[in-house]
Hints:
The complex is a heterodimer of chains A (723) and B (364).
Chain A: E1 29-30, H1 38-43, E2 52-55, E3 76-81, E4 87-92, E5 112-118, E6 121-128, E7 138-143, E8 149-154, E9 162-170, E10 177-181, E11 187-192, E12 201-206, E13 209-215, E14 221-227, E15 237-241, E16 250-255, E17 258-264, E18 271-277, E19 282-288, E20 297-302, E21 308-312, E22 317-321, E23 341-347, E24 356-361, E25 372-378, E26 381-384, H2 386-389, E27 397-403, E28 412-417, E29 425-429, E30 448-450, H3 452-455, E31 467-470, E32 479-482, E33 485-489, E34 495-499, E35 513-515, E36 524-527, E37 530-534, E38 544-551, E39 563-567, E40 580-583, E41 598-603, E42 610-614, E43 620-624, E44 631-635, E45 652-653, E46 660-663, E47 674-679, E48 684-689, E49 694-696, E50 703-711, E51 714-722
Parallel strand pairs in A: 1-2, 38-44
Antiparallel strand pairs in A: 2-9, 3-8, 4-7, 4-9, 5-6, 5-8, 10-37, 11-12, 12-13, 13-14, 15-16, 16-17, 17-18, 19-20, 20-21, 21-22, 23-24, 24-25, 25-26, 27-28, 28-29, 29-30, 31-32, 32-33, 33-34, 35-36, 36-37, 38-41, 39-40, 39-42, 42-43, 45-46, 46-49, 47-48, 47-50, 50-51
Chain B: E1 71-73, E2 85-91, E3 114-124, E4 129-140, E5 145-152, E6 159-162, E7 166-174, E8 177-185, H1 188-194, E9 196-197, E10 200-201, H2 208-211, E11 214-217, E12 220-223, H3 224-231, H4 255-267, H5 322-327, H6 346-358
Antiparallel strand pairs in B: 1-2, 2-3, 3-4, 4-5, 5-6, 7-8, 9-10, 11-12
Helix pairs in contact in B: 4-6
Amino acid sequence: MIKPTNKNSDIMKKKLLIIIAIGILPVISLAQISSNSCDDAETASPIIGNTVYTVDGFDGTAVSTSCSTTGIGTHGEWYKYTPTSDMYIYITSELSQNFNVAGGNNSHDTFVHIFTGTCSNLSCIAGDDDSGYQDTSRTGFSVVANETYYIAWDNIWDSASFDFKIVEIDTDLMITFTNSTINAPGLDRGVVDMNGDHLDDIVSIHSTNITINEQQPNGTFSSTMYSTDGIYSASWSMAAADYDRNGYTDLVYGNSSGAHVLKANSDGTAYSVAATSHSVFTQRTNFVDFDNNGDLDIFLCDDVAPNEYFINDGTDLTLWEGDDPNAPIAEGLGLYPSGGNYGSIWIDYDNDGDADLFIAKCGGEPARRQNELFKNNGGLSFSDVSVNTGMDKVLSTWSSAWADFDNDGDMDCFVGSSVSSEPHVFMTNRLEVPLDGNGNPIDGGPLFEDTTSTALPEGFYSFGHENVPYDFNNDGYVDIFSNGNMLINKGDGTFVVYSYNTTNPDYEPREGAVGDLNNDGFLDIFDSGRIKYNDLNNDNNDRNWLKIALNGTSSNINGIGARIVVSSPSFNSNATNKSQIRDVRSAEGFAYMSSLNAHFGLGTDTSADSVTIYWPSGTVDVIVNPTINQTLVVTEGETLGLPSTASDDMILFPNPTKRFLNINMNVIGSERAIYTVFDITGRRVLNNRLLSNTIDVSMLSSGNYILRIINNGKINTQKFIKQ
Amino acid sequence: MFHKHTYLLKVLIPLVALMASCSDDDRYIGVVPEQISPVIFNIDSLPYTNLSTYNFFEGNMSNLDPVYGVLPYDLNSSLFSDYALKKRFIWMPKDSSATYINDFTSFDFPIGTILIKNFFYNDVLPNMVTKLIETRLMIKREDDWTFANYEWNDTQTEAVYTSDNKFVNFDWVYKGEPKNVNYKIPGISECFTCHNKYGTPLPIGPKPQNINRNYSYEDGSKNQLAKWVEQGYLKDNFPTFINSLVSWSDETQPLDLRIRSYFDINCAHCHSDESYCEYAPMRFAFNETEDLSNLGVCVESIFYINPDISYVVKPQDIDNSALYYRLNSNQDQYKMPLIGRTLKHEEGVKLIEEWINSLNTDCD
């Protein structure tokens, strides 16, 4: 379904959709004094949003009507608030200064009523007692421009002073969903294309059958159940990819007692167990090509022992226990003896063109739950870079959301805590600063900086297993869906937290698989028999989008491990916001399999300048001026790739060489400079970031090679001989 | 009501050694030989490949008839393992004994202690026989405990060392009805998952609170702590009063003691400080559960199960109680205990339902 790119008059009358950059008011505590009654508040100045106020004890008039079943205290403190536009707000005392300090007794059990109307005729619109962390209050509702709201704090539990704030969420940022039930028997694990038409299907499984609800072009679903021959269900996780390249997507199930690989037959009419591990207590599972031979391998997190993996040689899957001394990955990829491995995710954190591994860990002694980051060196070699990158936090985490949240061209990370006793952590990638030859910042600090308090200014006190990054409102800024909350990216380095009512009767999204279930370019969520359709669509807003489905030839067929870069007028190398990036992954979060299509929101840009695909094989494809608001299917090698400069520009010496190649170009410090060495068959044999003018090629066997450097979207190539 | 257990005064095992004199005197005094345990304990060769090598039992090994020094014991409340029956034994090298630390911590066992736990079923179909499945050992070595598991053969003549997990499927008659089990013998990583605190392996069952009870020995019924002292296995320096578990199935005991005993032995090894799931707020150890919030009562459930469940335990509302859901579930990712069972413990679930319905705390 292709939608016209030019839409003006049809749009519902709303304000201009400028991506929100309304300067965030500095959070200062104003001396706005509360009023002792509604009438006093009426004549006092109204309070404003995004500002901290202190309720300095209670001596005012109590409310006459309670806005909650809790009741009414002896006193109330009153405020007036008049929004200047329609929006959604939270009135919240869930602020860290109100929490109970260990050993202290100053937690604040607050209670609030909110009214509309006039002081002589108030009617309740909202009220809250303990929705916030540690019995603080937090309640959200829609407000109308220029209407007056009366806020009355109530001392029924506590008369001590405390702080509160009104958090305003512009309507343009809002992300909401509408439920639609669907029959999906078994564990609802996947939203992913199963039959090669790039439409996301719904996958639910029992240990002995799979039900696929196949999305049809008209938006309906056609359901088929397939019997299977395994013993394990995907109780802990499921991942999907077409590992045998036959056009039909295969699955891997993670279970406490083992793991199964379920292979689709040649026409997708049957599924059977192709490989099994009986020795793993599986948590997150992933399809990823470790050895970059074009055949997808499978990684299995183990909760109680070192991780395991299957290596795919194109014909067979061979299982390895990570601590087996004969295993092909010498470093093992997570060898802690008693495990603690929960949320593995494969991302290119250092922009060198290959997939690195981050493992969110949990449980037991500090060393066991210390998160781990492994840099992929190519050739089945990995280095544990957890400490130097600063990603070695000791937390209780089950998954992490990786994306370029600040749009500066590198992958940042939100590590979501699963318990209130450990904080969430937001880590900003500093890949753009000057780096030494080992990829570490010259300033001596870690590569990732903890920016949690700036990213989440109101704090975030909801915890759980699932954290996934997607642009749900298509504004070009990646949001984070975290355990029944949307951390909405405001595009200014901060997120605002919008919380869903996940229980009866609303059943708003709590967790689930993410994909486009009505092919309208706005991402939906599936969980527990309900499709949560994104309320945004092509008719009710100005935002545009692009989905990209990859069809690998030398690389694995799904393009897993590929880096996709989309440039558009507001998001390009010359703008404040850099081109948008995605890494194709299987899978995100902890338990679910989300779409293999890469999804980009373009905001109000009405065109895209280019789409660049950096395939794992080393191939680069560039699509110039693609049609937007559609799914772009790219087959590896189909384009002419990046513009290539004359090879005279780059001189290599010594050539032939036995060990080092020196390059006569000044490329140090360039964020995207990558060197790749291809052998004469075109196979990629070396690949890494270019951090100096010298490359070590001593590990290559003797022969003829081509060195290619990609730098700022341009290619230089030169032949060399290794002696 | 709670019984205060006393114990007998320790009884010294007389050791009489007289020297025979080579005199013209024809009298001699016979030496009463000290009884020596015939268990074969070669610490450097452990664990043996075959259970028989240890020589724990005399006669047919499957009779589990212990040799001298292999002392049987039982617990006040024991872990649910798919209805498997258990016979437990303890052995220590000569002249070594354990020490009491406190009521709720396993004894400080000497190097060479072996804890032996045999899992079996009676009335196994089709022939209504007894079937031994596995024998788990914990052996105290220089620094740490070692786990060793032995899988019994079908002819019940030997059990062989195994470190992998394995399923054994069979039917047996339970309370008059046939029941099927796909019994899982745990692999070595799973032993450690429960039997550890912050990476240090440790026993779970033999704590004073769970050993403090009578056992019918061959020479009569006696308190186990007293017997261990008598055997020389326990130093006699523990208090007269030990805050002890009760048998959770003993309906003459108060409900709260029964449920706290049940939770202690089924849950506390993971849900306690420094254990596998220490990051969740529940603390199920018997000595911590006078405080209802440690049992999860009115505690928000943050691990998502379904939209209807908001609490770990909601008084009088089992449908809104994650704890009930999990004990009542066989789903791999929801069931509790997380490992160690594949069947539901019907009687345990009933006890929990009774307890949740007896609570009258108001969560709001």
